[in-house]
Design a protein that fits this description.
Organism: Massilicoli timonensis
Strand order of the largest sheet: 1-2-3-4-5-6
Helix content: 25-40%
InterPro entries: DUF1805 (IPR014931), YunC_sf (IPR036493)
Strand content: 35-45%
Number of domains: 1
Number of helices: 4
CATH class: Alpha Beta
Pfam families: DUF1805 (PF08827)
Shape: globular
Protein name: YunC family protein
């Protein structure tokens, strides 16, 4: 886990090390940016107000920021986050 600063805002970058895989996500008080190992449908069903955007790739934190959004929760869409925007754009969209 480490703190990241982007354009004056602070985020928490988390790596979960599993035996055969690593999962990365970037979070802040406004939402979560993660890869497809996380489920939008589960999140919407159990945490309907969660702002979560899923990117196609995330082998590094830089990839999470550069990859395109492939899905997001309804709460994220309500903040203007859309499929096709970059992970970095989605993170800053979570602040609106």
């Amino acid at each position: 886990m480490k703190t990241m600063q982007l354009h004056g805002e602070y985020f928490i970058a988390v790596t979960i090390r599993l035996p055969h895989n690593e999962i990365r996500l970037i979070t802040c008080t406004h939402g979560i940016l993660c890869t497809a190992q996380f489920s939008v449908s589960f999140t919407q069903e159990h945490r309907s107000q969660c702002v979560m955007a899923i990117v196609e790739q995330g082998d590094s934190f830089e990839e999470l920021l550069e990859s395109q959004i492939i899905s997001c929760t309804a709460a994220a869409a309500a903040k203007g986050i859309t499929v096709g925007m970059s992970g970095e754009e989605a993170l800053f969209g979570m602040f609106s």
